[in-house]
Amino acid sequence: MHLSQGSTGGSVDVAAAQRIEGAARGLLRGIAQLSQALFRAGEFGLTRSQVSVLDALESGPCRVTALAARTGMAQPRVTVILQQLQEAGLVERRRCADDRRAVETSLTAAGRALMERARQRMAVALLAALDGGVPGGVDDPERAVAAARSAITPLVDALLAQTTVVNTAETEAS
Prior knowledge:
- The protein is 68% helix and 7% strand.
- It has helices spanning 14-42, 48-57, 64-71, 75-87, 109-133, 141-173, and strands spanning 62-63, 91-95, 103-107.
């Protein structure tokens, strides 16, 4: 990734763009490492893809196409994962009431419980790491986690807004 022009086509300070690029790489690496460590701590007993689908279903019943969009996976892959999760008793699939051709998937009580237990294990692991795993420790683990979330939120919001603008432009062009 190299930034030489802004989104409006104007020039960008190349040195500033390079500093942002370097910081973004470090941020992405750090987020990936944190995500991997928390996933391991969660002890889900599932693949990351399966957990991603369960996570996407926590907000409510969903069709396969919407799950594919939410998770960034191909629709056939989501279908296979849903079959695996259904066999494990973690999701249930039903015909939509308003469109009998479509199928909606939702979490079962067992699926919700699995996610809750795993998230509790993740929180305990994070707290334990912040209390004693960092040289010198962290005085206030709750504040440290809140600060991290506050730092990431504007980045997520900006990227989601940009994605919405791009998707709207693509829809209007077609």
